[in-house]
Design goal:
Helices cover 3% and strands 51% of the residues. The chain is mainly beta. 35% of the residues are buried. Strands 2, 4, 5, 6, 9, 10 and 11 form a seven-stranded mixed sheet that branches. It has a four-stranded antiparallel sheet with strand order 1-3-8-7, with no helix packed on it. It starts with a strand and ends with a strand. It is globular. It has one helix and eleven strands, in the order βββββββββαββ.
C-alpha cells in the first residue's frame, strides 16, 4: 500500500484546512487509516482515525469538536477537516495504516505504512 498526503499550508488561528490522504494498493486487510502529527521538539502523536469498513471514527481529546475525519471509499481517500485551528496544532501531519489493526489501536501503535508528511502552520 502507498499513501499520499496533501493539503497542508499556513493558516491564521481560527482558520481551517482540509488534509487528504490517497491510498493505493489497498485491500480488505487494512481496517483503518489514521492521522498523526509531529511538532518540532515533540513526540509524534495520533490525532484521529477512521474505520474503512464502517466509517466509525476516533479522535484525540484535544481535537474533538474541531477536527472531522471522513472517507470516500470510491476515491480511496481519507480526509481530515480541521477547523478552529490553534497555534498548538502546528506540526507535520502524516497519514498511516497497517494490516489487521482497528482504528483506536492504530493511533497507539507505530504503523508500518506512512504517507509523506504535510506541513500545517497556524500563525498570525
Amino acid at each position: 500500500v502507498q499513501l499520499q498526503a496533501s493539503g497542508g499550508g499556513l493558516v491564521q488561528p481560527g482558520g481551517s484546512l482540509r488534509l487528504s490522504c490517497v491510498a493505493t494498493g489497498f485491500n480488505m486487510d487494512y481496517y483503518a487509516i489514521g492521522w498523526f502529527r509531529q511538532a518540532p521538539g515533540k513526540e509524534r502523536e495520533g490525532v484521529s482515525s477512521i474505520s474503512i469498513i464502517d466509517g466509525s471514527t476516533y479522535y484525540k481529546d484535544s481535537v474533538k469538536g474541531r477536527f472531522t475525519i471522513s472517507r470516500d471509499n470510491a476515491k480511496n481517500t481519507v480526509y481530515l477537516e480541521m477547523n478552529k485551528l490553534k497555534p498548538e496544532d502546528t506540526a507535520v501531519y502524516y497519514c498511516a495504516t497497517d494490516t489487521f489493526v482497528e482504528k483506536s489501536a492504530l493511533l497507539l501503535t507505530t504503523p508500518r505504512y506512512w504517507g509523506q508528511g504535510t506541513q500545517v502552520t497556524v500563525s498570525s
